[in-house]
Amino acid sequence: MKRIGLLGGMSWESSAEYYRLVNELVRDRLGGLHSADCLLRSVDFATVEELQVSGRWVEAGAMLADAARQLEAAGAEVIVLCTNTMHKVADAIEEAVGIPLLHLADATAAAATAARLTQVGLLGTAFTMEQDFYRDRLAGHGLEVLVPDAEDRALVHRVIYDELCLGIVKDESRAAYVEVIGRLVAAGCEGVILGCTEIELLIGQDDSPVPVLPTTRLHAEAAVDWALA
């Protein structure tokens, strides 16, 4: 088993899900008392969020690149960046280390392709939905990506930062997300990417009339596939 380096804390709510998932997946595949050989480097999300809001992405990239170097020095053999939004600085992380980074958007696109989806809706932070770093990566795999309108994007973003990142899960927010998904489906989406690692705390397949692509689980599965290959 190869050692997985989890670069998390953005937020720790979803990083805890990553830790749970990689261990459950290893246990399910190997049986018995097996668990994942992994390291977790968790950063202070308040600092990261401040850099996001102020557009200081170079500083954010340098911060996460340094954390990735620490994981490599501790023996990690692959980097798993436990956040969708901060894949905006994936290049800076890859350049800082000599081990691979498993890109979350690649794992998500592979699942969409396997499900024969071509047009997908994307839910995530405003950064993920409105900037091109994530949508272009998906488009590079042949996917057409649609995002909600401005009002719905604001709602999705607010729920992530004001509720889910704080461990708050509200039924009314779930209902609001279901309505957003319904509008994406009406616009032609064949599936919906839960493109923020916290969204899976709120939304599941039962909440959508079309397939959902749970990026946290898909990323964890890709990490375990790599570790056990």
TrEMBL record:
Keywords: Isomerase
One Pfam family named in its UniProt record: Asp_Glu_race
Family indicated by similarity: Belongs to the aspartate/glutamate racemases family.
InterPro entries in UniProt: Asp/Glu/hydantoin_racemase (IPR015942), Asp/Glu_race (IPR001920), Asp/Glu_racemase_AS_1 (IPR018187), Asp_race (IPR004380)
Coiled coil: none
Domain of life: Bacteria
Molecular function terms, GO-annotated: amino-acid racemase activity
Protein name (Swiss-Prot/TrEMBL): Aspartate/glutamate racemase family protein
